[in-house]
């Protein structure tokens, strides 16, 4: 099966990190990579902008996108990979939404700059908005300058409060890419589960029977983000899977101020799966 992958780019280093990771992750898979640039005119505090200035700026961005693609192609000799460009004058979220449908996108890759001092958040504003507003396909968030390594250990954080659906298909496909081991992580203050949690755990155990996996229970002595980050470091985890529930772990991750304790946040690629009740 050929994958269709959408990667927004503003030509920054963190966008390149996302592209490089996607290329290496799927080096054995047939893929079409759509490089999306959502263009808007940069005013530089001008009080009056001529149509000539706008047209010139737009053409320069189109050339830059073409050169960007050519440069990636020149560095990637994989015949299984095809690269195409998408130039849009819509806002980023609108451009993503439109092209997810038009090109039947399977996955969306985003780069993140890490902590931004202005926002005091782990993700940049574009990544935050995308995670909040896009739920049609999995999103893979790649830390800036992250060096790819084969996925040997993948963590999946869950509280067992909701039933598992189609997202398990994506999790298992991701695990099978590199014959990884899935480490299911549950962080909780209590040492017992409710009847609903036990039911969901039993269902998960049955569904994971055909892949290598472990179940891990961690006490909630610290913030969940800190507990999971400690687990990632301890187990040498290569990627973290999260399901994008409302009022769940991801909301805490993207909204909490983190400047004071940067080391307590995951620094591995995140696979964020949409949840449809």
Protein described:
It holds the Pfam family Usp. This is Universal stress protein. InterPro entries: Rossmann-like_a/b/a_fold, UspA. It comes from Olleya sediminilitoris. Residues 5-143 form the UspA domain. This protein is an alpha/beta fold and 277 residues long. The protein has 2 domains: 3-143, HUPs (Rossmann fold); 153-274, HUPs (Rossmann fold, 3-Layer(aba) Sandwich), CATH 3.40.50. Helix content is 36%, strand content 23%. It contains 8 helices and 10 strands. A 10-stranded mixed sheet has the order 3-2-1-4-5-10-9-6-7-8, with helices on both faces. The longest helix has 25 residues, at 51-75. The two termini are 27 Å apart. Mean pLDDT is 85; it is low at 115-122 and 256-264.
User: Approximately what portion of the residues adopt beta-strand conformation?
Assistant: 15-25%
Number of domains: 2
Count of individual helical segments: 8
> What letter string, H or E per element, gives the SSE order?
EHEHEHEHEEHEHEHEHE
Kindly report the spatial arrangement of strands forming the biggest sheet: 3-2-1-4-5-10-9-6-7-8
Q: What's the total count of β strands?
A: 10
Share in helix: 25-40%
* Uncertain runs: 115-122, 256-264
CATH topology-level name of the largest domain: Rossmann fold
Tell me the CATH architecture of the largest domain.
3-Layer(aba) Sandwich
Shape: elongated
Rg from C-alpha positions? 20 Å
The end-to-end distance, rounded to whole angstroms, is: 27 Å
Derived structural class: alpha/beta
CATH class of the largest domain: Alpha Beta
């Amino acid at each position: 099966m050929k994958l269709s992958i959408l990667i927004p780019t503003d030509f920054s280093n963190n966008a390149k990190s996302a592209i490089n990771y996607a290329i290496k992750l799927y080096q054995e898979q047939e893929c079409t990579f759509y490089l999306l640039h959502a263009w808007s005119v940069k005013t530089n505090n001008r009080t009056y902008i001529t149509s000539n200035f706008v047209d010139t700026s737009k053409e320069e961005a189109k050339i830059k996108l073409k050169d960007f693609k050519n440069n990636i192609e020149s560095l990637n000799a994989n015949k299984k990979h095809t690269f195409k460009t998408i130039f849009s004058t819509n806002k980023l979220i609108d451009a993503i939404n439109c092209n997810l449908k038009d090109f039947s996108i399977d996955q969306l890759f985003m780069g993140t700059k890490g902590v931004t001092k202005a926002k005091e958040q782990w993700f940049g504003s574009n990544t935050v908005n995308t995670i909040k507003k896009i739920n049609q396909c999995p999103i893979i968030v790649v830390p800036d300058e992250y060096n790819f390594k084969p996925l040997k250990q993948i963590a999946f954080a869950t509280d067992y409060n909701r039933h598992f659906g189609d997202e398990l298909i994506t999790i298992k496909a991701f695990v099978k890419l590199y014959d990884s081991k899935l480490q299911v992580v549950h962080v909780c203050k209590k040492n017992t589960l409710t009847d609903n949690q036990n039911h969901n755990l039993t269902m998960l155990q049955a569904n994971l029977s055909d892949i290598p996996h472990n179940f891990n229970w961690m006490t909630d002595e610290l913030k969940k983000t800190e507990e999971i980050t400690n687990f990632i470091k301890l187990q040498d985890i290569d990627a973290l899977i999260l399901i994008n529930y409302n009022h769940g772990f991801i909301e805490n991750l993207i909204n909490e101020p983190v400047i004071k304790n940067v080391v307590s946040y995951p620094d591995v690629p995140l696979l964020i799966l949409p949840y449809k009740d």
